[in-house]
Amino acid sequence: MSEITIIKQGAEAKLYCGTWNGTECLVKERFVKNYRLPELDKTLTKSRIKAEQKTIKRCEDQGIRVPKLYHVDFNERKVYMEYFHKAITAKEYIFKLEKSSDFEALDLLCSKIGSIVGKFHANNIIHGDLTTSNMLIDFKEDGYEVIFIDFGLSSYSASHEDKGVDLYVLERSLISTHSSLPELFEKMLVSYKETNTISTETIKRFEEVRARGRKRTMIG
């Protein structure tokens, strides 16, 4: 395996383009955080890699499109996975659709995203970082697939509170990133409810979390 070029570096990891057993892949390397105690850093890194590994497997079992995992190296703190080199983020795609005033395509995208998040929660999968930067749009001849990525903060939970928080994270990220399109979340919520038919309690908890968030904002 030889890394070729750095695609992106975030607060938690570096992304490289490379090959694995002759297949082009993406390498995600979680680098050492020097401000942490070494053992704590090692434990947290291993925990997040394992979370990503387990959640991707659960998604695959439920037919949810996510990157395929090729290899995990805990010692090197690296995950080797499928690379969608022609894909763009949902964030970029939404900006393009807004610029071209293609609101029909925007509605379709919201429906797809809401449906996938609904499928996550119906199967007790908590993403943990639902943002349009963590969704890829992989174009095909007959359309596109929405692929969710970055499951380092994910978990498995039947808790409606956890699912409500997951929805709240999504809503806040949309408000922050796509403030000129305030209707996005509500449109996603329509298909979310259609897919996750047992979502009534989750929605109730989400509204409670939202109310608490608004109260904190007013106090602050």
How would you describe this structure to a colleague?
This protein has 220 residues and is α+β, with helices and mostly antiparallel strands. It contains 6 helices and 10 strands. The protein has helices at 38-61, 90-99, 103-122, 160-177, 184-195, 200-219; strands at 5-9, 13-20, 23-30, 69-73, 78-82, 88-89, 125-126, 135-140, 143-148, 155-156. The strands form 3 sheets. The chain has a 5-stranded antiparallel β-sheet with strand order 1-2-3-5-4, covered by helices on one side. The longest helix has 24 residues, at 38-61. The protein is globular, with a radius of gyration of 18 Å. The model has no long low-confidence stretch (mean pLDDT 93).
Q: How would you summarize the topology of this molecule?
A:
Layout: E1 5-9, E2 13-20, E3 23-30, H1 38-61, E4 69-73, E5 78-82, E6 88-89, H2 90-99, H3 103-122, E7 125-126, E8 135-140, E9 143-148, E10 155-156, H4 160-177, H5 184-195, H6 200-219
Antiparallel strand pairs: 1-2, 2-3, 3-5, 4-5, 6-8, 7-10, 8-9
Helix pairs in contact: 3-5, 4-6
Short structural description:
The protein is α+β, with helices and mostly antiparallel strands.
Keywords:
single chain, 220 residues, alpha+beta, five-stranded antiparallel sheet, three-stranded antiparallel sheet, 6 helices, 10 strands, globular
